[in-house]
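Quick check before the chapter quiz. The format below is the same one you will see on the exam, so make sure you can read both the input and the output lines.
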Amino acid sequence: MHHRTSRRTLLTATAVTAAAAATGVAALPGAAQAAASGTSPDSRLKRLIARMSLEEKVGQLFVMRVHGHSATEPDQADVDANLTEIGVRDAAELISTYHVGGIIYFAWAHNTRDPHQIADLSNGIQRAGLAGPTPLPLLVSTDQEHGIVCRVGEPATLLPGAMALGAGGSRSDARAAGRIAGAELAALGINQNYAPDADVNVNPANPVIGVRSFGSDPDSVAGMVAAQVKGYQSSGVASTAKHFPGHGDTSTDSHTGLPVISHTREQWAELDAPPFRAAVAAGIDSIMTAHIVVPALDPSEDPATLSHPILTGILREELGYDGVVVTDALGMEGVRTKYGDERVPVLALLAGVDQLLNPPDLKVAWTAVLDAVKSGEISEARIEESILRILRLKTKLGLFRDPYVTHRGVDRTVGIPSHLAAADRIAERTTTLLSNTGSLLPLSRRSHKNLLVVGADPASPSGTTGPPTTTLAGAFVELGYAATALSTGTAPTQAKIAEAVAAAQGKDAVVVGTYNVTATSSQRTLVSALAATGVPVITLAIRNPYDIARLAGTGYAASLAAYSWTDVELRAAARVIAGRARPEGRLPVPVQRADDPAQALYPVGYGLSYGSYATPSP
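Here is the expected output.
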C-alpha cells in the first residue's frame, strides 16, 4: 500500500502541475494566486473558459453515471453496460469523449464496493479529467442522505436519516452528522453530496419523500437544513438542498409520474420556501430542482426543472441564490412527460440550470445542447455563466490545487471508532416511544428475557446492512436477551403469520418491525394474531411513523418509531426498548387517525418518556 500511495503522490504532483500550466490556475491557495497574478479568481476562470472548445464547455454542464469499480479497468459486465447505455467502455473514455464536468456514484453501478476502491475510482476519474485538452478536475457526487437513501455503506459510518434527526430535534446533532458524513465522503474523493432534503413533508401519503424530510414544520425543517449544510460544507464537501421549489406535498412519485403541487403562492412562501431560504443563508453550494408542477409559481405548468419563472425568477432573483443549480435525474418520468429527451436539457439550461444530471441518453442530450448553442437558441454566454459557477465550486473545493485522495486518508477518516460512537449517540436521541400500555417498556430481562423478532426485511439502502429482523435480534442478544429472528415480510401470508404465531409460543415478548402499514395490509393481521396469543407485542415502525394509526385495535402493548431500518437506528431502538437509553425522540410530523384523517392521533412533538403513562389506547 505504501508503494501505491507514493505513486499516487507522484501522479498528483504531475497532474496538478500540468493542470496549472494548461489552465493558469496555479496550485496555490486562492489568496496567493490572486496576489501573485494581480487578477481576481473569476477573471482567471473566465480566461480558462475562453480557452475551452465548445464541446468541452457543453460537457462541463453534464453529470453522468457510469458503471464500474475502476475508471479504466471495470469488470466486463460493466463495460458491456456502459457500451449499451453510453457508447463508451469506462469512466475515462466517458470523460475523454464527452468532457463531462461531473460523475455520480451509485451502488447498483458498482461504484461503491469498499472505501479503498471508491478512493481509487475517484482518483482515476480525476486523472482522466486532468488528461484532457483542457485539464479540468471533476465534481464527483452521490446521494448520501443517510437513513433510507444511502449509496456508500459499511464500513463507512451510517447515520440517522433526516426524519430521525428531526425527531431528535437537535441542530447540533444534525450538524455533527453532516460533518462526519462530509468528512468521510471527502476522504473517498466524493466532493458533492445531494443532501440534505429540504422538503417539508406535509402529506403522509407522499411516496417519494416521507422520512427523507426532517418533518412537517417549515421553521424546524429550515433549522435542521441549515445545520446540515454547515456540517457538510465544514468538511469540504458541497452540500445540495433538494428538491426546489419543494416536493413535500405530493402523492405522486416523480420517478414514475409528474406531481402537481396545488399550493398557492402564499402557501408556498409559508410552507415550502423557508428551508431553501435557510440553505441559501447558510451558504449552500448547490440546489437541486424538482420535477414537479406548481401552477401558482408557473402557470405554463412546465416542471420546475424546466421553469424559467421558478428557477430564475424565484430561486435566482427572489431568493438571491447564485450558486450551482443541478437538475434532479433527467431519466425520471416527471421531467420527460411533457417534452422529449432532446428538448429537456435545452429547456433546463434556458430555465436557469447549471448542471444536467444523469440524462437517459447522454449522446442525445449532449448533442441537443451543442446544436442549441450552434443555432443560437442558447447563447454561448449563457452556458459560460453556468460553467463559471461550476468552476467556482471546483475552485472552492480545492480541486484545482489537489483533487486526489489517499488510502491513508481513508483509513484515518472512514468508519473510525469516534464516528461510529457519535452515530450511535445521535441515533439514541431519535427513537420515539408512541405507546407504552401498562408500562411494558423498558423491557426487563428478568421477566421478558426470551424474545421473538419478526417483521419486514426491506433491502438495505446501501446494500451493506440488515436484514432488520436479524439486526434487531442480534442487538437484543448483545444486550443480554435471548432473541430469535423470523422474517415475515411486508405482506405476510397466512402461512407466514401462522409460523410467527407458533414461534411466539413460550416467548416473553414479540417485537414486530412494521413497514408502511396500509388499511388492507396483512402486517396488521400479523400484529393482531400475535397479540391474541397473550404474549406482549411491541411494534417498531422501521420507515414511516404513521404505521401506529393503522394498527389501532390490534392489541399491541407498546409502539415505537425508528424512521429507518439501517443498523444504527435499529440498534438504537433496541437499546431504548431495553432501557439502556431513554426514549428522547418526538414526532416531527403529525400522525392522523386512520378513521378520521382530519384528526391528529398524535401531534407534532408527541413522544413518551419512561414514567409517562398518558397514551391513547391501542
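If your answer matched, good. The CA atoms of residues 122 and 615 lie 52 Å apart.
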